[in-house]
Design goal:
Elements lengths: L7 E2 L8 E2 L14 E4 L24 E17 L11 E18 L8 E6 L10 H13 L2 E5 L3 H10 L15 H16 L3 E7 L1 H17 L4 E5 L28 E6 H7 L10 E6 L7 H14 L19 H18 L11 E2 L2 E2 L14 H4 L3 E4 L11 H4 L1 E4 L2 H7 L3 H18 L4 H13 L6
Parallel strand pairs: 6-7, 6-8, 8-9, 9-10, 10-11
Antiparallel strand pairs: 1-2, 3-4, 4-5, 5-7, 12-13, 14-15
Helix pairs in contact: 1-7, 11-12
Length: 462
């Protein structure tokens, strides 16, 4: 792979031109919309806005801002067959005005910005913007100096802004989700200019991942906004381009995309996605992380804190399921994925290849501890103290528990049979953590945190 492109953004807010030495002009450059700061104290304020972060960003050396984005969005329609190879062509169908918002989080000290902006297609599966990628990987973003942009691109999320705080978001509007792809392009381009981005990564989780598959296959070749894609937690297929224009059940990432793409799949995701696995290729890697759930205890704890303030989902009550939520630290692998993708873009060295989870669909192979075989092996599954399941049941939020997985703790007798002494447990855990770190699936800082957590666990019980 050739050296990554260097992107420089000139201008600050509106109609600035893309200039990069040696960069081929886009087939069709996305418009650059008007970007207007939203006052921090307007309406319920930035701390009371839809989907604030649970983290104390100023204490972490980060600044959070919110901008109104206004422009004219193009909706597309398919131009020819939508094949399983992902080589999809689209053509403009209509144009209409829109107004939405973006959330920008960046190092307060500009010298700490690493030049890479992660642009998240914010998830709206539960009727409100949920920034899953920031919730999972904020520690990596903060310690490495990434800037983050959360884009409200879809109608259900944009409409919720107005109903939640009509003073702060009085005029947000969208012509519909057919325009979401161009809204995402425009918002990312404007935010990149604002931040003087050198590299832009598009990311999204679950239904947003399906949107990104369609975006990568149909829109990126036209707009060329992004230097890489992190597609997280997709099922099989992809999102429709326009109403009634469904995509194939098996929708590959096109092999001529030309920028690094990393797919990260939880064990939950493989239950559906495994029937349409795509081999690794020059610009594509897929990581399947054993023992992990589509959503988990780590993410849910953070989102529960936010929801307690907003009271948008189930009047702010915490998520409850029939069994304890999946506690496998999937965010460790997510952090490693962002680092690997960023380095791939910077240096041309591809992200490491990873073994796939063994089995297909519901027939995944399991070991004697009822943990899945194969895949990326975090230390918590190589030195297990529980069985980690991909789905749960029951719950107070319809549909959520199916995605949040389970943790079934081993009893004292089993723990003692596996680990006669605490030192035996720590030794096994530390060796597994070192193996994952050396393979590129665990960041050094997370290795240290994981080993310290293992040292503090009362395993086996006294």
């Amino acid at each position: 792979m050739s050296a990554p492109r260097k992107r420089r953004w000139s201008g600050v807010l509106v109609l600035a031109a893309l200039v990069a030495a040696g960069l081929t002009a886009p087939v069709q450059a996305a418009e650059t919309p008007t970007l207007t700061p939203i006052p921090a104290d307007l309406g319920k304020g930035i701390q009371g806005r839809v989907s604030p972060t649970a983290q104390d960003l100023p204490a972490l050396g980060y600044t959070e801002e919110e901008f109104k984005v206004e422009g004219t969005a193009t909706s597309y329609t398919a131009d020819g067959n939508l094949g399983s190879d992902g080589k999809w062509n689209v053509k403009p169908a209509s144009q209409a005005p829109y107004t939405t918002r973006v959330v920008v989080r960046r190092p307060t000290n500009p010298a700490k910005f690493n030049g890479t902006v992660v642009v998240e297609w914010v998830n709206v599966s539960f009727g409100v913007d949920i920034p899953v990628e920031f919730g999972q990987s904020w520690e990596e973003f903060v310690r490495e100096g990434y800037a983050y942009v959360g884009v409200s691109a879809q109608k259900v999320g944009i409409d919720k802004l107005k109903s939640y705080d009509p003073v702060r978001y009085p005029d947000v509007t969208t012509p519909g989700d057919a325009a979401s792809y161009d809204i995402f392009s425009q918002a990312a381009k404007a935010a990149g200019q604002q931040l003087n981005a050198k590299r832009m990564i598009a990311s999204g989780h679950s239904q947003s991942a399906l949107r990104l598959v369609t975006y990568a296959n149909a829109i990126q070749p036209r707009d060329r906004i992004f230097d890489g894609f992190l597609i997280h937690g997709r099922s099989t297929g992809a999102a429709e381009i326009a109403s009634g224009q469904s995509t194939p059940l098996i929708s590959n990432i096109r092999d001529d995309l030309g920028v690094p793409t990393l797919q990260v799949q939880a064990e939950t995701d493989t239950l559906v996605y495994s029937i349409s696995r795509q081999p690794d290729a020059t610009n594509l890697r897929t990581w399947e992380v054993a023992g992990t759930a589509h959503g988990d205890a780590y993410l849910t704890e953070s989102l529960d804190k936010v929801n307690a303030r907003e009271k948008i989902i189930d009047n702010g009550n915490p998520v409850r399921c029939d069994k304890p939520l999946n506690a496998m630290p999937a965010h460790y692998a997510h952090n490693a994925a962002y680092h690997a993708l960023d380095q791939w873009i910077r240096t041309g060295k591809p992200a490491p290849r990873a073994p796939r989870i063994e089995g297909l669909g519901p027939l995944l192979s399991r070991d004697g501890n009822q943990n899945v075989k194969g895949g990326i092996r975090l230390p918590d599954i190589e030195a297990p103290i529980a069985s980690y399941g991909p789905t749960n049941s029951g719950g107070n939020v319809p549909g959520a528990c199916l995605l949040l997985g389970t943790t079934t703790a081993f009893d004292a007798a089993k723990l003692r049979s596996l680990y006669p002494t605490h030192a035996a447990y720590v030794t096994r855990y530390t060796a597994a953590a070192a193996k994952a770190r050396d393979a590129g699936f665990l960041r050094p800082a997370d290795y240290t945190a994981a080993v310290r957590a293992a040292q503090a666990r009362p395993v086996p019980p006294a």
